[in-house]
UniProtKB/TrEMBL annotation:
PANTHER family: HYDROLASE YHCX (PTHR23088:SF50), NITRILASE-RELATED (PTHR23088). GO terms for molecular function: acyltransferase activity, transferring groups other than amino-acyl groups. This is GNAT family N-acetyltransferase. Residues 229-486 form the CN hydrolase domain. Residues 10-210 form the N-acetyltransferase domain. Keywords: Transferase. Coiled coil: none annotated. Signal peptide: none annotated.
Amino acid sequence: MSSERTKASVVVRNATLDDVPAIAALVLKVYGRPADGYTPGMLRGQISSFPEGQFLVEYDGEVVGYAASFIVSADLALKPHDWIEITGNGYAARHDPEGDWLYGMEVCVDPEIRRTRIGQRLYNARQQLCEDWELQGIVFGGRMPGWKRKRKQYPNPEDYVEAVKAQKITDPVIRYHLRAGFEPIGVLRNYLEEDTDSGGHATHMVWRNPYAVEVKPANKISYAVKERVRVATVQVQMRAVKSFEEFMSNVEYFVDVCSDRRADFVVFPELFTLQLLAFEKRKLSPAESIEALTRYTPRFIEEMRELAISYNINVIGGSHPTRTDDGDIQNVAYVFLRNGSVHAQEKIHPTPDERHWWNIKGGDSVDVIPTDCGPIGVLICYDSEFPELARRLTDEGARILFTPFCTDSRQGYLRVRYCCHARCIENQLYVVTSGCTGNLPNVENMDINYAQSAILTPCDYPFAREGIAAEIAENVEAVVMADLDLNDLNFARSEGTVRNLRDRRFDLYRVAWKDGG
C-alpha cells in the first residue's frame, strides 16, 4: 500500500486578538530580545486600531509571519518622519480612516522557514488591501543593512541608496524592495535608532497603486451604519444585608433590569461587596474587614459569572478585595463577560487611605479586555486620576473605559468626575462611572459615601451637550443607560474640532513603560 504525503498548508489571513500570544512569540523569536520587538499591548493596539491591515501567515497551523499596517494621510506619510512618531510608539495609534496611504510598520518572518515566500505573501496581502480600498499606495521605512559596511565609501546614505539603484553595489533588503515594485523617494534619517546596521536610517519606500482613483469618495467612514453599544451604570445604596444570598439577590435585580433593556454592559461600584461585612458577628477592624472579604472571592466570582451568562450581559463587577497569588491583598475589578470568560484588573494606585487602613497593595499591569463590543478598559477610582493609564488603554484600542469608584465626600467625588471627563476629552473615548451611596455604620472606614454616577463623552459636535450622555441624581440608588455610537469616536478622531490623538507630538514626548508598552 503506497503512502501519500500531504503538503503543508499555508494560510494568509487577518490577525485577531486571539493571535496575540502567537505573534508575540514570533516577534521574540525574530528579534531575540523583548525590548526590540512588540509587547502584547502594542499588538492589541495594532489589531484593534485597524484589524483589516494586520496579516499573518500560518504554516501547518503555526504562525510564521506577521505584517502590521495602518492608514495615514499623504501629509504624514510622504514627509520626513521617524518610526516612533508615525506608528504612535508601536501601537498604530496614528491610524486615520480618512487617510489615503497604507503605512507598513512591520514585517517579520520566522527565520527557520525557508523557500516558502512568506514575506512575499505578506507584501501581496498589503497590495491587495490597498487596491480593494482604493488607496493611493503603500509607504514604509525600509532597512538598508549594507550601509554599515559601505559607510566609508558612501558617507551620505542617499548616495548609498542611489548606488544600489544603479546596481553599483548590492544591498539585500533594498534590492528585495526594488524587485517588489517599490521605489525609494529619499532617506528617512534617524528613523529607528535600534537598527545600527542601517545607521538608524531607513529608505523612504513607496509603492503606487495603479488602480487608485484620482479623487477619493467623500466620507470614507460609513456613518450610516451605527456601531452602537448600550451601557448601564448602577449607583448602589450601601445597606446592611443578612447573608451572601441577600447581597447576590440585590445584584441580580439590577442585572435583570439592565438585561431586560438589552444593555451590553452594566457596571457596579468600587468595593460594593463591603456590604458583606454587615452580618459579621462582631465589628471588625479595617484590616480584619478586608481579610474577611477575601474569603468570599471564589464564590463571588462564580455567581457573578453565572449572572453574566444567564442574563446575556457583560458585567463589570465593581471591585472586590482579593488576596492574590503573591500573598498581597489588592483591590481587583472583575469583568464577567456573557461568553463565560472572567477577567481581572487590579487597581494600580491604592489611595493613601487604602494603604494605611487596609494594607492594600497596588497592581502592576493595565491592559484592555477583549469583548464582543470591542476592547474595553477598567480604571478603578483613583486610577482615573493618572492620565498615563487611560492613554495606554486607548493605544491598545479601548473606546470605552469603565470606572467603578467609592468616595466619601463631594470633593473626593469631583476629583474622580473631573478626571474621568478629562480622560474622555484627551483620548476621545467614552467613560462610564459607577459609585456607592448610603452608609454602612458598622463597617470601619466605610461609614459614609457620596456619588453621582454618569456616562461621559468627549466634548464635540457628535456628542451629548456638556459631554454627559446620562447621569444619576446625587446620592440616590438608581440605574441609568445610554446608547454610545463608536463611529462617533472615529469621526471625532479624524475630523473633530480638535484631534487629540492624532495631534500628539511623538517627536517631543512619549510614555515609556517598563514592559516596553
